[in-house]
Amino acid sequence: MEKITIINDPPYGTEKVWNALRCAQALCVIQTEIRIFLLADAIFCAKKGQTTPTGYYNLENMLKELIGRGAKVKACGTCMKARGMNTEELLEGVEFGKMLDLANWTKESQKVITF
Predict the structure, then answer these.
(1) Distances from the Cα of 74 to the Cαs of 66, 70, 99, in angstroms?
(2) What element of type H or E holds 81?
(3) DSSP letters along 17-70, please?
(4) How much is the pTM?
(5) Which residues pair with residue 8 across a beta bridge?
(6) Of 33, 37, 41, 84, which shows the fewest CB atoms inside 10 Å?
(7) CA pair distance 44, 31, nearest whole angstrom
(8) Do residues 27 and 3 touch, judged by C-beta distance below 8 A?
(9) DSSP 3-state assignment of 104?
């Protein structure tokens, strides 16, 4: 199975993360192994308990769905520390990640997509 790594932007500031997660969902449909590494403010995509306005997309729910489909998700530990976020705040299934994890995923992947 081909492996693809996706790196994305901050949540809710733009539609980049929303579109990255939509792309990941579509790739799951065509049986692609998805890995998502959350950097900088994108770590907040993996924060538990997000409440969005009615009718607005919810990145927490989108990540939960992707994890349920087998996607691997890691949040940059350095980025989390810089923003005062701890592992207890992460969604179930999201792992504390290191730059070495991203390096390995990048090396193993046939493609890396950034948004």
Answers:
(1) 13, 13, 10
(2) helix 77-82
(3) HHHHHHHHHHHHHTT-EEEEEE-GGGGGGGBTT----TTS--HHHHHHHHHHTT
(4) 0.87
(5) 38
(6) 84
(7) 27
(8) no
(9) helix
Give the separation between CA 50 and CA 34, rounded to whole angstroms: 23
Rounded Cα distance between 85 and 103, Å, is 22
Amino acid identity, residue 8?
Answer: N
**What are the structural domain ranges in the chain?**
3-114
- If you search the block for the tokens 């693809």, which residue do you land on? 4
Structure tokens at 18: 């929303």
Q: What are phi and psi of 21, to 5 degrees?
A: -70, -35
Helix (H) or strand (E) holding 112: strand 111-114
Tell me the pLDDT tens digit for each residue of 33-91: 999 999 999 999 999 999 998 888 999 999 999 999 999 999 999 999 999 999 999 99
Strands 111-114 vs 94-97: parallel, antiparallel or unpaired: unpaired
How many residues are present in the chain? Answer: 115
CA gap 103, 63 in Å, rounded: 22
